[in-house]
Amino acid sequence: MSADPVLSSKSILDRLSLTGKNALVTGGNKGIGRAIAHAYAQAGANVAIIGRNENDSKAVSEEIASLYKGIKVINFTCDVTVENEVNATIDAVVKEFGSLEIACNNAGIAEWVDAQDMTFASWKKMISNNLDSAFLCAQAQAKYMIRQGYGKIVFTASLSGKVSNYPQHQAHYNSAKAGVISLARCLATEWAPYGVRVNTLSPGFTITPLLDDLKKTEIGQKYYPEWISRIPMKVMGEVTDMQGAAVYLSSEASDYATGMDLVIDGGYLAW
């Protein structure tokens, strides 16, 4: 008679723990990435902060090290759109930690521009920063995860990868994020036999430095009330609202979840 999994499994809190795991977060020096880096450290993981701004990355690393004793925190400067830099950075993370169990590929950019006025250069920049970077990072991370037979890759996608948000015009951003969701599904099925789980976390409207800057513009002030009106909870999310989902997708508790898009949007898609 097989064991009863309810009685024989580790407790759910133990399965949500990341103690003893090594994690990295791209774009981990601000916004949602910073919040996820903190969450990983709170859950017990060592954390590598990867970003383009060295000073910001160092500041977040020092912040985490001061708050969570016993956690190893490192930081690297990397342009995640450049293949050689990505490969070298992931190699360096593994060299420092000894292994890599968790990767949150969060780095990305956003822009509002009418499609008819969008330059092809703007299109390519958006795809490169949000979709190409996701592929390059995951490919470099999977090299180690497949070898060890275990790993969790989490992409930060977006509500905008599932719907065309109104009234902003961002065809290139929406397309890139939809691509990230599709990429994750493809990698999830391809790498499942090797013990590597791949999922996406899709935030809805979330208060980040990027959104704060937009709210100061004429367009942001005009449309902010409309954005709020379309959210059933009538409030934008905080970056901390993404922490629980990120820890779940990176922990043993989600070992049977792969190819999934977890949306945290205050009910936006339910309306």
UniProtKB/TrEMBL annotation:
Coiled-coil portions: none
What InterPro entries would the database entry show? Answer: NAD(P)-bd_dom_sf, Sc_DH/Rdtase_CS, SDR_fam
GO BP annotations of the record are: carbohydrate metabolic process
Keyword annotations of the record: Oxidoreductase
Q: Which PROSITE patterns match?
A: ADH_SHORT
Gene Ontology MF, one:
oxidoreductase activity, acting on the CH-OH group of donors, NAD or NADP as acceptor
Question: One Pfam family from the UniProt entry?
Answer: adh_short_C2
Q: Which family does it belong to?
A: Belongs to the short-chain dehydrogenases/reductases (SDR) family.
| Protein name in the entry | Unannotated protein
Q: Specify the species.
A: freshwater metagenome
